[in-house]
Amino acid sequence: MITPVLLCGGSGTRLWPLSRKSYPKQFTNLIGNETLFQAAARRVAAPGFAAPVVVTGPDFRFIVTEQLQAVGIDPGTILIEPSARNTAPAILAAALHVAASDPGALLLVLPSDQVVPDAAAFRAAVAAGEDAARAGAIVTFGIAPTRPETGYGWMEVPPDTVEGQGAPVDLLRFVEKPDADRAAEMLATGRFLWNAGIFLASVATMVAAFEAHAPDLLAPVREAVAGARADLGFLRLAEAPWGACPEISIDFAVMEHATNRKAVPFAAGWSDLGDWASVHRESRPDAAGVVTHGPVTAIGCRDSLLRSESEGLELVGIGLSGVLAVAMPDAVLVADAARAQEVKEAVAALKRKGARQAETLPRDFRPWGWFETLVQGERFQVKRIVVHPGHALSLQSHVHRAEHWIVVSGTARVTVDGAERLVSENQSVYIPLGARHRMENPGKVDMVLIEVQTGSYLGEDDIIRYEDRYARGQGAKG
Amino acid sequence: MITPVLLCGGSGTRLWPLSRKSYPKQFTNLIGNETLFQAAARRVAAPGFAAPVVVTGPDFRFIVTEQLQAVGIDPGTILIEPSARNTAPAILAAALHVAASDPGALLLVLPSDQVVPDAAAFRAAVAAGEDAARAGAIVTFGIAPTRPETGYGWMEVPPDTVEGQGAPVDLLRFVEKPDADRAAEMLATGRFLWNAGIFLASVATMVAAFEAHAPDLLAPVREAVAGARADLGFLRLAEAPWGACPEISIDFAVMEHATNRKAVPFAAGWSDLGDWASVHRESRPDAAGVVTHGPVTAIGCRDSLLRSESEGLELVGIGLSGVLAVAMPDAVLVADAARAQEVKEAVAALKRKGARQAETLPRDFRPWGWFETLVQGERFQVKRIVVHPGHALSLQSHVHRAEHWIVVSGTARVTVDGAERLVSENQSVYIPLGARHRMENPGKVDMVLIEVQTGSYLGEDDIIRYEDRYARGQGAKG
Fold first, then answer.
1. Which helix (H) or strand (E) holds A101?
2. Which residues neighbour A61 within 8 Å (Cβ) at sequence distance 6 or greater?
3. pLDDT the model gives residue A123
């Protein structure tokens, strides 16, 4: 059995506005009908694979469980990184965690934000690397390059092996993201693969590699794993030692120094969807080079991506050429396709000017479900709140606002100053300023509630928590 | 005194998504801090001008009164056209209406959707045409052309008069919208002006011109004016005869045939903002040719228009060149600037596919204020409703839905099955299915209310009206 390690803590900005810090790209439907994370999990939910270890951040833990549940996959462990420290500490933590119960385990480390259309071919490549990994190699999976890409790291392999039949070959050296000329040269030689960040190795090999090449990481990560605390089905790495880990990638920390490394060439299709130009490329453009998604009307366009991310938002493109347009109700991107990388700078500019769209979506995901602000006025705010079956918000009170709750779907159990009642569709409840209140969903379907807040201050941090089944503190998020 | 006639019934589609059939461009802030209609009304609110006659459609009548009130202008009359019949019937109706009380009046007919930056220069041009008009001419105001524009009609005048000092000159002939070569030729001759659709004539001259050149219009328009019905300060033209009028422009009906016509050249700046490319041109682009409006971040763009029409909507443009981008929360346009005219076809395509964005805005303007849908679910809908001081919705009931009302600003007087009460900020009312109910705003400031509807059918047409101060029928709008 191979234990997949799904790395799921990333939060790039180049796919803004769809991908935001609060809800990064691995959780979005960029291609196809499932999210990139769901597709990655399903790619390794097959005979020969154990339940996956997912490594993610505290803000994403409930998104992970919801998305796995939706595709019917039980995670082995969800490891929570108290903060993002890049890939090396995450992989080492997973290896140490798995080693504790299964010292002979083979780990398949894979990012959860990539597209691999042919999952069977991918599993065949993994199988091709298995013997080498069991024999003590760190096996990477190198993508046979199809263009002079400057956005990836490259890896050199011996001559005449790139187009090989998938057997492991020697990995001679890593090349950092090249410039265009260097990328074209490497492509022409036929001796280079793209580094996809996918690794297969035994836990013993992996830990030994850290011992040899990154010994300073071992102590804090060991301590963080040893001190990990089980919390509602998650395993939360100990905060203090974790925070002491240097932020470093597995390539820098280990792979560039290791000698027992191999590469399995993979040519069946792969993309990391690093920017909107690559989403365009991977989305099967029509004969005119146009990709549309959602309610879009394209007139006389070519070589363009037109995405509306909302059913209620009509996007019209006229006469566009080489344009990427992505529309959401709170943010719209229109970019020259050749400058897709600059979305990163745009997000930084939005952050500098204090626009909340830089990092957060209108919809806010919480342990119990999600909510969104429908309208915000001077002394009022209206929210839609969705509580999943069996979940509950904390018992709380507010100093500055009163709330009206109207249940519009399902049934709520509502507590106000100690009195409990069931509230069903079309019934309402008033929560006076200062009252201790809680809403729960005791039913079997989502409960949807409209909340109308009135008061002089309506910030999320006006909250006193008396009891919270998700172990959140005062003033912490909802 | 000159009586301005503001033509305000138009509803072009080339400025979609900002301008829609339900709220056309003359009522929007395309340039500057007031709407085009407000700017037009203020242009002729000056010594020497009587209160204006506004000719508009039934859907726009309350927008007209609200916008005039906001700039402190009292209309003389607001003539309601039961349907849009193009400019000739509208101008004749205004002339006949004014003639009834003041047979010697001088009319200045002007479209309400144009930009004229220098109002004083415009009034000076009008003054320059006054003697000729009083002497029996129909005086038009011709714009000194600045480019080979194919979107306008042109007018030929004698040599060396285009750059004249504003005195009336003979108007030799009209030229329909030309092709590019013809437009360039006309521009080069210096003997042509653009037809701006602005006319000065006495009511007697105007009526006589219709008698001579469009006698078939006279009978139905006379009948529509004679049968006009006063209604809440509006004068509603009689529907049956009005509907019998041919749809025809003043140019075709009268101007092309008239011999007593003159033109006053006008060179102080003018635009009809016929499409987004002209909005770009008139909005003072920066050195790179870029115009932004609203929360916009433009990185490395040139010769582009980037407009976000909502404070809560961030628009980002990267590396754009010659692109028009207009973003609203429910609709986004991204177009090649050279193809701005095709917005019209895009709107037609949206209409064919049944997208409500083709013609209506999220905000729905009614006699008493406005409302917008905040969220629509399977069996619920949430609206924000704003009622202006002193106004009231009709006394009504619904067969399929119950409603919860929460007042979030101001005070409402609410009637439910005969019982009346005052509801103030942070108070709520429940309207059971079938109950006869009404909301009024008895206060001095806008009343804002959140309405949560639940039920099996939530269409606007589930309404039984018992009493309505705005004289609307069963199933009619709000």
1. helix A87-101
2. A78, A80, A234, A367
3. 97
Q: Is A100 buried (19+), middle (13-18) or exposed (0-12) by CB count in 10 A?
A: exposed
Angle between helices A203-213 and A87-101 (to 10 degrees): 130
Shortest distance, CA A374 to any CA of chain B (angstroms): 6
Distance CA A159, CA A192 (A): 9
Q: Which residue, among A201, A222, A216, A199, has the nearest Cα to A253 in the 3D structure? A: A216
**B159-185 tens-digit pLDDT:** 877 666 678 999 999 999 999 999 999
Chain A / chain B CB contacts < 8 angstroms: 192
Distance, CA of A291 to chain centre: 24
Number of Cβ atoms within 10 Å of the Cβ of B469:
14
Q: How far is B334 from A334, CA to CA, in rounded Å? A: 8
Whole-model pTM over 0.80: yes
User: ipTM score here?
Assistant: 0.90
> Could you tell me which chain A residue has the CA closest to the CA of B432?
A426
Nearest CA among B383, B380, B378, B355 for reference residue B439: B383
Contact assignment for B374 to A382 by CB distance below 8 Å: yes
Distances in Å between the alpha carbon of A130 and those of A122, A126, A201, A256? 13, 6, 8, 21
- Record: contact B316-A329, CB cut-off 8 A: no
Q: Average pLDDT in the B140-161 region?
A: 92
CB–CB contact B334 A314 (8 Å): no
Chain B contact probe: residue of A307, A334, A342, A404 with most B CBs at under 10 A = A334
- Mean pLDDT, residues A32-40 taken together: 94
* Alpha-carbon dihedral angle through residues B50, B56, B58, B59, given to the nearest 10 degrees: -120
Q: Which of A276, A302, A304, A316 to mutate to test the interface with B (most CBs of B within 10 A)?
A: A316
CB contact under 8 A, B334 and A342: no
Q: What is the 3-state secondary structure (H, E, C) of chain B?
A: CEEEEEECCCCCCCCCCCCECCECHHHCCCCCCCCHHHHHHHHCCCCCECCCEEEECHHHHHHHHHHHHHCCCCCCEEEECCCCCCHHHHHHHHHHHHHHHCCCCEEEEEECCCECCCHHHHHHHHHHHHHHHHCCCEEEEEECCCCCCCCCCEEECCCCCCCCCCCCEECCEEECCCCHHHHHHHHHHCCEEEEEEEEEEEHHHHHHHHHHHCHHHHHHHHHHHHCCEEECCEEECCHHHHHHCCCCCHHHHHHCCCCCEEEEEECCCCECCCCHHHHHHHCCCCCCCCEEECCEEEECCECCEEEECCCCCEEEEECCECEEEEEECCEEEEEEHHHHHHHHHHHHHHHHCCCHHHCCCCEEEECCEEEEEEEECCCEEEEEEEECCCCECCEEECCCEEEEEEEEECEEEEEECCEEEEEECCCEEEECCCCCEEEECCCCCCEEEEEEEEECCCCCCCCEEEECCCCCCCCCCC
Element (H, E) at A297: strand A296-299
pLDDT of the residue at B453: 95
pLDDT digits (tens, 9 = 90+) for B380-403: 999 999 999 999 999 999 999 999
* Domains with residue ranges and CATH for chain A: 2-266 (3.90.550.10), 284-352 (no CATH), 363-467 (2.60.120.10)
